[in-house]
Amino acid sequence: MAKSSKTTTSKSPAANTGAGPKKASAKAKTLKSAIGAPSQHSQSSRKGKKAWRKNVNIEDVEGGLEEMRSEERVVGVPLQKLKDSDLFEIDVKGDDKVRHTLPKFSSSQLTSAKILAQRSAVPAVLSRTTSSSFKRKASNLSREDKERLLRIAKRPRKGPFNAIMDPSELKSGEGIVEMSEAVRQSGTYDAWASADDVEMEEVKDGMETVQPKRVKPPQTTKPRDMIDVPAVVEPHQGTSYNPPVDAHLELLRKAHEAEERRVAEAERLAETKKKMEAARMDADDDGHGALPSGMRLDAAADDEGEEEQEEEEQAVVRKQPKPKSKAQKNKAAKLLAEKRALAETAARKRLMVSIDQAKSFRKATAKRMSEQELVAAQRRMALELKVRIAGLSGQRLGKHKVPEAEVEVQLGEDLSENLRGLKPEGNLFRDRFHSLQQRALVEPRVRVLPKKRTHRIVEYEKHAWKKFE
């Protein structure tokens, strides 16, 4: 550093004279590099005072400053500011542990990791003040006073959950808006806690024994909890390229049964459709296609004279009944009363007999109900077992039906004896999607195919496009 300062002071008076730059340049040419071959500082121009000051050589000054910075990075302060006792120590005893503390060469440690491990002793520059870097006098104001001052200054205040409060509440400071008790205790109450965890609340006013009513969770079971189907089902042995005979026959039997059910369902639908078409054709043959099935329309008469003649004949046939006498009316009322009495007597006898047989009826009803409950329980258990083993395959869930897994099997002549002749089968994406539907993770859907355009696109050429330059 002293050498660099001397060089700077020797150059400064020469800059004020006209012959200074020539002498300095001649002197600079004689300088040699301290390391390696001789070198000369290249400068573009030193014509004039400004160019001289701008292009002056200060490499030795910058080298000295960089050396001080490197010392400060390693030690923390420049070495020239430390004392000799801090830098040197007379060791008269020796230390056997020095060899173990020295860094060892490791081929597994990267050079970049070694460079990153070298930390500077200079503390990092902080972008914001902290308690250690900037000590501030603590304020004696309470939280209520701070909020009141913010309301007076009409500054935004933060309320519950670190939210900015409504500006309409920024009054002159008379009222204080605080958090309610519900907001303070939010998140602490567990509605589904067990009886052991819930502490009995003490109700005042002489009702210390009264306990609050506990809310019971709903006893509903979800299909997802009942299903015990793995995400990837282990394939059947019959699907192998060289399967055992028994496994292959069993898989062929399953595929045959599934195909028979599919064909029977198609035949049933075709028979139903055929019946509907036959009923429609019968209705059309009657000539009353516009009327609903079961309704008949009377044929209209061609001649009005025939209608009048029929009305006259009907009028002649009809006879006015003679009015009944009082004796006949009394006799009919007496017969009706006797019939009602006999019916009431028979009903009373049947009721008395049923009362005597009430116990047997009760036993028969209880037996029938127990049988029905047993059948329902067995059906429910069978359904739960099916859901646990096969998932929701084949069941209607909502609008659509969960598809069943297709049985993939090859015939005997299609089997390949080696892996070279094996052909890829199935679709992994379809299997994954069906597995998600069977495990109640995705709702069943129907594939939506793009529709073809039913109308033809007509292109029109406007008049404005016909005239252009």
Question: What can you see in these coordinates?
Answer:
The chain contains 15 helices and 2 strands. By secondary structure, the protein is mainly α.
Radius of gyration: 53 Å
**Helix percentage:** 40-55%
How many runs of DSSP E, i.e. beta strands?
2
Number of helices: 15
C-alpha end-to-end distance: 79 Å
* Shape assignment: elongated
The main pleated sheet reads as:
2 strands, antiparallel
Strand ordering within the main sheet: 1-2
- Strand residue percentage: under 5%
Order of helices and strands: HHHHHHHHHHHHHHEEH
Instruction: Give the mean pLDDT.
Output: 77
Structural class: mainly alpha
Keywords:
single chain, 469 residues, mainly alpha, two-stranded antiparallel ribbon, 15 helices, 44% helix, elongated
Secondary structure blueprint with pairings:
Elements: H1 2-11, H2 20-29, H3 49-54, H4 59-75, H5 84-87, H6 98-101, H7 111-117, H8 143-153, H9 181-184, H10 223-226, H11 245-285, H12 304-317, H13 326-356, H14 358-390, E1 396-397, E2 400-401, H15 428-438
Antiparallel strand pairs: 1-2
How would you sum up this structure in a few lines?
This protein is an all-alpha fold. It has 15 helices and 2 strands.
